[in-house]
Fold:
Amino acid sequence: MIERTYVMLKPDAVQRGLMGEIVQRLESKGLRPIAMKFMRIPKELAERHYGEHKGKSFFPGLIDYITSGPVLCMVWEGENAVASVRGLMGKTNPQEAAVGTIRGDLAQQTGRNLVHGSDSVESAKREIQLFFNEYELVDWKRSVDAWLFE
Ligand code: IDP
Ligand code: MG
Structure:
């Protein structure tokens, strides 16, 4: 099933100069970029995005972290894109994330785990709408798609 997912490179990814490496991994998988936006997230938007975690002990720290510097907001499309990106990211805690994943290879702590990816198709829909309007979502095809999809 072709899906879209919301991916966000967090402030540590930007500050550590890892945007290129992480985008490279998504591109190399054959996922198609649909939208990208570099921005500093306002606190209210951060709190809405992470609304499911409100009330948890790590919530205030999470909001401080995610609003501490610019992030790269993106939408990617592909076969099972939601699960596919979660697989490329690895587990939430980088100490448990497999080698070969973004978090497993490039991060050390849960509170500095570089990347966000939607956890379901419904979350993806909600998050994409939160960060992008319809004119920012680019529908396009690539000639290489014939070599990715039968
Ligand atoms: P996910 O990003 O893998 O979907 P979630 O459980 O949805 O993980 O948590 C959202 C984000 O909140 C994590 O990626 C991480 O940045 C942060 N977070 C979650 N649990 C902790 C914690 O125990 N300490 C610090 N930060 C946490
Ligand atoms: Mg999550």
